[in-house]
Every structure is written in structure tokens, then in C-alpha cells.
Amino acid sequence: MPLYRLHYFPESGNSYKLALMLTLCGQTFEPIWTDFGGGVTCTAEWRKAVNEMGEIPVLEVDGVKMTQTAPLLLKLAEQYGRFGAETEDEKFELLRWLFWDNHKLTGYMATYRFMRAFTENNDPQVLKHFRRRLEDFLGILDGHLQHNAFAIGTKPTVADISMMAYLHYPSDEHGFDFAETHPAIHAWLGRMAALPGWKPAYELLPGKRMTNYAK
């Protein structure tokens, strides 16, 4: 069995994606809390020792450090035979939604949520711009989920794990009430939370938390 060590911070939805995937696949990992809020990932020392890209998460597999959440999710899906696609059409759809999430949904939500909740002095006009973009992306996802139980059909995949990660955090962080505004997303999040072994981020990722200025 591989030995996993996950470098993370609790508020990182990308860290949660890997933690949740490992957990749903019946794997354990050693949690390595990282002082992202303190700027450690910006230091030359950390980038030389942990990740030259200066990003969290980092997944160590038997001592080998690996980065970038999407390819890691795909690698784990293939390794454990879970949450992947079966046909060529399904593989295309999985990648389509996974890439869309990385470029649009996660890309904007991660930045918006961080600025909104974990930055003391933010720019209201920047937040307004990101919010407007997110409302578009969330509308696209909600419309898709009105006709699909999961991203590519009737079974959850790593595309779902990727898309739901930032959306499942408390509403006082991201500022959306999905039950009220996006009922299909709300129902889908419930289906994901009902998967055997599912746990929320702040349970899977312990450690010192950043100040939430949006409360």
C-alpha cells in the first residue's frame, strides 16, 4: 500500500479534493499542515524543498512529491479503479467538466472566496466582478445538474469531486445559499455527501485555521 503524505491547509479546496479522493478510495494519508496564510509557499526555501510552483496541495507518494490536483485525481482514479470513466465518450465528458471546473468554477471560486473571507481589506469592485462571473458558472452547472445526477451521468467521478470541493464549504465563506439560489447544485452536493466514507474538509484537514473576516 502506498504511503501518502498531503501538504495542505484546511481552507484549500484543492487540498480537499485529494484528501476526499483518497478517503473515498479507502486510503489514509499523513497530513502536513502548511502555513499558507503566513506566506511560506512564497519562500524560495519552501519552493526548493516542496514545490517549485509555489502551490498547495502537494501529495507525496512513497516519498515522491507530486503536484497539480487534476492529473493527480485522474491518476488515483486509474490506480484504484474508482470515480473514473469507462467508455471513450465518458472519458471525454469527464475531462470536459474537469477542465471547465479548473478554468472556470474552481478557478474563480477559490480566488473569490479567499478574497471575500480571508482577506481583511478587499476591493469591492473586484469582488463584484468575480461574483458576477461565478453566478454565470453556477447557473451553467445548476442547469446541467437539473438533468444529470452527476457530472457525466448517473455515477460520480473525479469531475464531481473537483467541482464540489469549494462549493461545500460554509456559506459564510463563499457567500452563496445554494438551497435558495441553485437547488440542483444543492441536491447534488447532498448526493456527494451521501457517498460512503465522505467527510467535510474541516474534518479531513485539521490544523490552524485562517481568520474569516466575512463572518
TrEMBL record:
<dbReference type="GO" id="GO:0016740">
    <property type="term" value="F:transferase activity"/>
</dbReference>
<protein>
    <submittedName>
        <fullName>Glutathione S-transferase family protein</fullName>
    </submittedName>
</protein>
<dbReference type="InterPro" id="IPR004045">
    <property type="entry name" value="Glutathione_S-Trfase_N"/>
</dbReference>
<dbReference type="InterPro" id="IPR004046">
    <property type="entry name" value="GST_C"/>
</dbReference>
<dbReference type="Pfam" id="PF14497">
    <property type="entry name" value="GST_C_3"/>
</dbReference>
<dbReference type="InterPro" id="IPR010987">
    <property type="entry name" value="Glutathione-S-Trfase_C-like"/>
</dbReference>
<feature type="domain" description="GST N-terminal">
    <location>
        <begin position="2"/>
        <end position="84"/>
    </location>
</feature>
<dbReference type="InterPro" id="IPR036249">
    <property type="entry name" value="Thioredoxin-like_sf"/>
</dbReference>
<dbReference type="Pfam" id="PF13417">
    <property type="entry name" value="GST_N_3"/>
</dbReference>
<feature type="domain" description="GST C-terminal">
    <location>
        <begin position="87"/>
        <end position="214"/>
    </location>
</feature>
<dbReference type="InterPro" id="IPR040079">
    <property type="entry name" value="Glutathione_S-Trfase"/>
</dbReference>
<dbReference type="InterPro" id="IPR036282">
    <property type="entry name" value="Glutathione-S-Trfase_C_sf"/>
</dbReference>
<keyword id="KW-0808">Transferase</keyword>
